[in-house]
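Lecture notes, continued. The same structure-token format from the folding unit now serves as the input rather than the output. Read the line below as a description of shape only.
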């Protein structure tokens, strides 16, 4: 029997996902990644199921590896929570230099910095990683993974990059813009992001977060902000206790309730998760992430109408959220299968996967 392609496994995974056969769907998504390690649909599908995919890095110990025609050692220059004061310190250094050169220009730089203070500070709590680079018809493609530990969404991120050859000679430099948003304390993957045409023999790829828009900033005490960041960094079921402590101390912070719901969902307790998503929506009816995860929970409780209503609500609020858009397109738009369909009983019938609504 001929082996199935990644796309055939993906069709089966989507159908099983839709039918609520979680374990089988996970297995099929993982088989997709075995055949096509940078398949963004499979990665998003696993994350929708609460499973963080194991991505096979094409390098080890900093040595140059090869990934689909684009070599990389991923010497990433990233802005993240562990780089305390990194971006802020550089800005202040520049202001001091500018003040020394000319008072007027220095004051202009200082005013500009203060106007963008929240955005600059937020960058310290965002990690951007270029994953699974490849070449497609001479164009460099990557999956851009963004982790946002801030207590508010970030969006319109600009990431600069440099592609060099094995001798460290620059082949291409540029800036890629990610128009979508990443919710508070969550992560998103922007799959198959183009870095443009590249000539030569790429060997190194260096991304750097340059700018973003942060907010609206919540009115939250610093100690609660720190606790939220800690919970978001732990993620999912392991963060349960931290989120429980947080919601017991502050009663009006919706992202904390969403995080607690996700922690229960990761334990398979969808009813319990829905309770916390509902509390998040009571606080903030416009919280797209709460609507989104409510949709996922309803979906696995086989309440498809409620799930469709919630995913549509999430999409109206955050149409630029890649995870919400993917789920609405591929999962909640699938048609129910007839109960007597052989296809419903045959997981190998990949070519008979349900059609998507146009």
């Amino acid at each position: 029997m001929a082996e199935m392609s990644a796309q055939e496994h993906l069709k089966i995974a989507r159908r099983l996902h839709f039918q609520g056969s979680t374990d089988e769907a996970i297995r099929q998504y993982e088989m997709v990644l075995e055949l096509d390690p940078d398949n963004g649909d499979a990665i998003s599908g696993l994350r929708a199921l609460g499973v963080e995919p194991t991505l096979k890095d094409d390098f080890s110990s900093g040595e140059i590896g090869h990934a689909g025609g684009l070599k990389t050692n991923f010497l990433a220059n990233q802005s993240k929570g562990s780089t305390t004061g990194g971006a802020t310190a550089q800005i202040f250094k520049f202001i001091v230099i500018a003040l020394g050169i000319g008072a007027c220009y220095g004051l202009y730089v200082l005013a500009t910095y203060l106007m963008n203070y929240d955005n600059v500070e937020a960058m310290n709590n965002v990690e951007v990683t270029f994953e699974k680079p490849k070449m497609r018809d001479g164009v460099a493609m990557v999956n851009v993974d963004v982790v946002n530990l801030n207590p508010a969404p970030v969006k319109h991120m600009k990431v600069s990059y440099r592609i060099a050859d094995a001798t460290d000679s620059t082949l291409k430099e540029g800036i890629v813009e990610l128009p979508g948003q990443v919710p508070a304390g969550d992560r998103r993957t922007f799959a198959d992001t183009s870095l443009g045409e590249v000539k030569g023999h790429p060997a190194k790829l260096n991304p750097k977060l340059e700018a973003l828009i942060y907010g609206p900033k919540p009115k939250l005490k610093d100690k609660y902000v720190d606790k939220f960041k800690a919970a978001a960094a732990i993620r999912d079921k392991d963060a349960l206790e931290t989120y429980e402590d947080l919601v017991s101390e502050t009663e009006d912070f919706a992202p904390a309730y969403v995080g607690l719901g996700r922690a229960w969902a990761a334990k398979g307790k969808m009813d319990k998760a829905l309770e916390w998503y509902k509390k998040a929506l009571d606080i903030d009816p416009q919280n797209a992430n709460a609507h989104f995860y409510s949709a996922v929970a309803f979906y696995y409780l086989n309440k498809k109408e409620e799930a469709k209503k919630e995913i549509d609500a999430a999409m109206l609020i955050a149409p630029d959220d890649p995870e919400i858009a993917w789920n609405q397109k591929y999962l909640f738009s699938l048609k129910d299968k007839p109960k007597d369909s052989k296809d419903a009983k045959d997981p190998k019938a990949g070519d008979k996967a349900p059609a998507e609504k146009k």
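Point for the exam: The chain has three domains: 57-84+124-217, 86-123, 222-319.
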